[in-house]
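Could you help me review a protein record that somebody else here produced? Here is the record exactly as it was handed to me:
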Amino acid sequence: MNRIILCSILFIILKITPCRAQNLDSLLQVETDSNKEKEYVEATFKSTRIILGQSIENKAYGELNFLISHHFGNISDGSYHLYGLDYSEIRLGFEYGITDWLTIGIGRSSFNKIFDGSFKLKILRQSTGEKNIPFSISFYSNIALNSLHWANPDRANRFDSRLSYAYELLIARKLNSSLSLQLTPSMIHRNLVKTPADQNDVFSVGVGGRIKMSKRFSLNAEYYYLLPGKTADDFYDSFSVGVDIETGGHVFQIFLTNSNGMIEQSFIPETTGSWLKGNIRLGFNISRTFTLTKHKIIDIND
């Protein structure tokens, strides 16, 4: 009887031990997984712009970006106007990384002689490892000053009538090494509009993407859908397609667009051209980054 009991106990121990060893291996695997180093997703887009609109990208701490934007006239103007090259609008801008998660910017556009100031705040950054964050989120806002002479200088014109504002939430995901997508809900507020029927607040939803074709070349596209209202009735949705070409510290963006303006207050609610009517413009952005301060890393997700 004792031998039977002893054999039974040994049999149970032999059966349980592999299971317990397996459970211990599982626990060790979970512990190993939880200790994986966090890896941030890099280069969702190559520039701080997808084309006209903001991308999820910030400038790193201590980096200064000099941006030249240029839009020509309508290609449909024909050979007499050299397919729009006789006419042009330009914007010069600077962006500086205060930290890895905060970028500020200033600029001046020839279109409506607009001065603008902006900031972009990184809220979440796509990452894998200890914290698996599936997408990146940033908040962007700017203020613009229209410095054109008053159309009617004899009336009581107010300075704040020159001001307008943009507010955007940038939500992006790099799906793989070649494809990145971004959703951009936006609101534009204009202190002064032409008629009482016009909208001071204009809402839109932007969609943009990038397809990487090689290490230094990609195809980009973006579209801003104006939500129904008088602005959507009077103007057209902004649509742009182009390419990014990276050469060291420079990023060249060459594109076609139906928009003339180069900041959100201009191209989102005030695009007068239509692709279907041939109102297509050639444009380009040139971005050059200078490192002014040695880089430091701040983990915004901790």
Notes: The longest strand covers residues 201-214. The radius of gyration is 27 Å. Residues 2-34 form the longest helix (33 residues).
